[in-house]
Amino acid sequence: MTQVHPKAPRTFPIDEEKLIELTRALVRVRSVHEPAHGHTEAKAAALVADTMRDFGWEPVITEVAPGRPNVVAVVEGGGGDGPTLAFVGHTDVVTEGDPTRWTVDPFGAELRDGRIYGRGSADMKGGLAAMLHAVRALQLAGPFPGRVKVCAFVDEEGLMLGAKHFAASEAARDIDAAIVCEPEQGEICVAAKGAIRLRIDLLGAMAHGAMPQHGRNPIVAVGRLLDSLSEYQQHLQDQYGRHRTLGLPYLTPTVLEAGSANQVNVIPSDASVYVDVRTIPGVDHQDLVRTVTLLAQAAGAPEGVAGHVTVLDDRPPVEVEPTEPVVVALAEAHEAVVGSPARYGGVPGATDGTILTRDAGIPTVVYGPGGKWIAHQADEYVEVADLVQCAKVYAEAADRFLRGNAQ
Ligand SMILES: [Zn+2]
Q1: What mean pLDDT is predicted for residues 274-298?
Q2: CA of 186 to the centre of ligand 1 (A)
Q3: What distance lies between CA 17 and its chain's CA centroid?
Q4: Distance from Cα 274 to the centre of ligand 1, integer Å
Q5: Ligand 1 center to residue 27 CA distance, Å?
Q6: Which of the residues 89, 105, 139, 297 has an alpha carbon 20 to 30 A from that of 167?
Q7: How far is the CA of 126 from the centre of ligand 1 (A)?
């Protein structure tokens, strides 16, 4: 893809011991969002804010929902005019699930054989700690042009309320590019799939099973609809083909609610099909929703069943060019620090970066410590060497981007 011109890396004094300590301290905070139990990101966010204050920064704390604060610090380079780069992480983690599936304490942050274990170690408290220490090291290395915004958002694993709130705020206006520190195992992810969550309601009329002629059966319409969704998926895949890093678009029915009367001799009045749509660049979301609406109406027509589509969530696919300065800076930094060229990849789901691009027009790239596939699994871990290497790459990439040195 891009030709890179690695220069000799500058030395950024990453405090490796403190980086490991901060990652472990963050993992020990169970920042699963469980409103029923009063659990939020607040304690993890406070730890991020304390770290920023220790660095002499002034974190701005904004509650985007009760007990759910975004933490953002602006680090001025003191080296004259220059661009604004954002580092983006999130403080929430998904649940540990059944703890008996773990061989370690999910929130023990055990350090063993060069790995830190625990929920969120990879996704993404490791990345969060790495970006904080990277920006601190950049600052300690001397003045630089422009500024860095260090952002720790809430609710990435949910509705991305933190990113949405920030993208709508004045603080997002001057950001020229963002590096999202999700675990991607050394890949520079220049694209992320879009997602649409749909609920399709099929509304018929209840009747006695012995007299189906008096009813309008939505279950028969569901059968037709599933067939036509599958055909439409094939059509989209033929039309748009396989994206170089994201693969194919999919329409996957995931939930079926039908037969609420739950009696074999009752024709139910309604049924709903939930569809998880994953798109690639080029697919027009409005067109897609219009087509699914027509398919739902056509599926119900023979029985007189009405079809309605509700969009529950809509996140566009995003992609940056490999020639985008932030991508070039990151690729050069990776090669300079690691000693081999970076691989390019795509993110199968959306990230906070999707929201920053959609709502604030910020070009984003995703790169961070930890395995892509270990996120959300039992015995999640991050390699300490990976953590330290990523912090070095972040500092180096920021330096190149802000100086406009990226070739
Ligand atoms: Zn994440």
Answers
A1: 97
A2: 15
A3: 28
A4: 24
A5: 13
A6: 139
A7: 10
- pLDDT at position 11, please? 79
Amino acid at 245: T
How close is the Cα of 222 to the center of ligand 1, in Å? 35
List the domain range (segments joined by +) for residue 367: 16-192+318-403
Q: What is the mean pLDDT of residues 380-397?
A: 97
d(CA 309, CA 289): 8
* Centroid of ligand 1 to alpha carbon of 199 (angstroms): 26
Task: Give yes or no: residues 212 and 329 share one domain.
Answer: no
- Same domain? 311 vs 322: no
Q: What CATH number does residue 178 fall under? A: 3.40.630.10
What's residue 349's pLDDT?
A: 87
Among residues 221, 254, 249, the alpha carbon closest in space to that of 237 is found at 249
* 266 Cα–ligand 1 center, Å: 45
In a domain, residue 145? The reply is yes
- Of residues 8 and 60, which shows the higher confidence score? 60
> 18: CA distance to ligand 1 center in Å?
22
- The encoded tokens of residue 334 equal 């990776």
Sorting pLDDT into bands at 50, 70 and 90, what band is 10?
Answer: low
CA of 293 to the centre of ligand 1 (A): 32
Domain count, the chain: 2
Distance 123 CA to ligand 1 centre (A): 4
Count of CB atoms within 10 A of residue 76's CB?
A: 14
Asked whether residue 3 is domain-assigned, the answer is no
Q: Return the residue matching tokens 């985008």.
A: 324
Q: How far is the CA of 162 from the centre of ligand 1 (A)?
A: 13
Do 112 and 172 sit in the same domain of this protein? Answer: yes
Placement of tokens 């690691």 in the chain: 338
Span from the CA of 99 to the centroid of ligand 1 (angstroms): 20
Asked if residue 157 and residue 34 are part of one domain, the reply reads yes
Kindly state whether residues 274 and 372 are assigned to the same domain. Answer: no
Q: With respect to residue 2, please indicate whether it lies within any of the assigned structural domains.
A: no
- pLDDT of amino acid 30: 96
- Domain CATH for 263: 3.30.70.360
**Per-residue pLDDT tens digits for 110-124:** 999 999 999 999 999
Q: Give the SS3 label for residue 270.
A: strand
Q: Is residue 9 part of a domain?
A: no
Q: Which residues, including other chains, have CB under 8 Å from residue 340's CB and lie 6 or more apart?
A: none
